[in-house]
Amino acid sequence: MTDETHVRDLYDAEARRNAVTDRPGARVERTDTVVRHVCPAPGWNGILWSDLREDTADAEIAAQVEYFAQSGAREFEWKLYAHDRPADLGARLSAAGLVPEPLETLMAAPAAAIAAEPAPPEGVRLVEVTDEAGVDLMMEARRLAFGSGSPMVRHHLLSRLTEAPDTMVAVVAMAGDRPVSAARMEIRPGGSFAGLWGGGTAPEWRGKGIYRALVAHRANEAVRRGVPYLQVDASSESRPILERLGFSVLGETTPYIWTSPS
User: Fold this and answer.
1) How far is CA 56 from CA 33, 52, 60, 194, in A?
2) Which parts of the sequence belong to the N-acetyltransferase domain (predicted)?
């Protein structure tokens, strides 16, 4: 068994099959075939893990669509990994009306191997986010990076800072008084992985080392907190940077999104 396979199996066990939640009002529900995350609006709803058979997969997918429709959710995400069964699960999800988003790469690295002195470009400083004003700076950085904000992300950040601040490290890169990039790290207490999320940078500041500095900052925090591994669902833009930093590819993942017709 390669080290990548071992780490992927560990991730599947901790973050998917045995997932927990610290989001206020949310819960994790388990059946024989799926693990789902259920959260009141505007929180995130989704399927974290599944183990389906070819002869029953379509019925199980329909059951999950019905479950979230009856719950009143506006949307839910089925997080599909390339090694999930059956092999044609993506096509079955599409046939059931779920829409695939861009492919992501599941990547991981030992936190200690990535930890380094953050080196943002001249004129940029990294500021940890601890309050609502900081969250608003993060959302402005997100708007500059991606062209839009996200009420769900803002709600999640504020809830986490209020209810479970020890499980998140949020940081914004400031050029003067302007936020130009932001990212966060989420930690499962007692778990082996710290997830790196966000990392969006304003177009004119890309390619200058801000993303690497944000990764290093969060890696340092993971080491300080005793978390062995960093994990990322990497976009096609961030994957090459992460590979150069020492992250390994564990597999591919595609978010499939169901949206309520009403």
Assistant:
1) 10, 7, 6, 34
2) 124-262
Any residues with CB less than 8 A from the CB of 212 and at least 6 apart, and which? 119, 241, 245
Q: Distance between terminal CA atoms of the chain?
A: 47
User: What's the mean pLDDT when you consider all of the chain?
Assistant: 94
What is the rounded CA–CA span in Å between residue 146 and residue 132? 21
Contacts of 205 (CB under 8 A, 6+ apart): 121, 124, 173, 175, 180, 181
pTM of the full structure: 0.92
Per-residue pLDDT tens over the stretch 69-114: 999 999 999 999 999 999 999 999 999 999 999 999 999 999 999 9
Structural domains in the chain, CATH included, are: 3-105+254-259 (3.40.630), 110-250 (3.40.630.30)
CA distance 52 to 88: 11
Q: For residue 128, with 0-12 CB atoms within 10 Å meaning exposed, 13-18 middle and 19 or more buried, which class applies? A: exposed
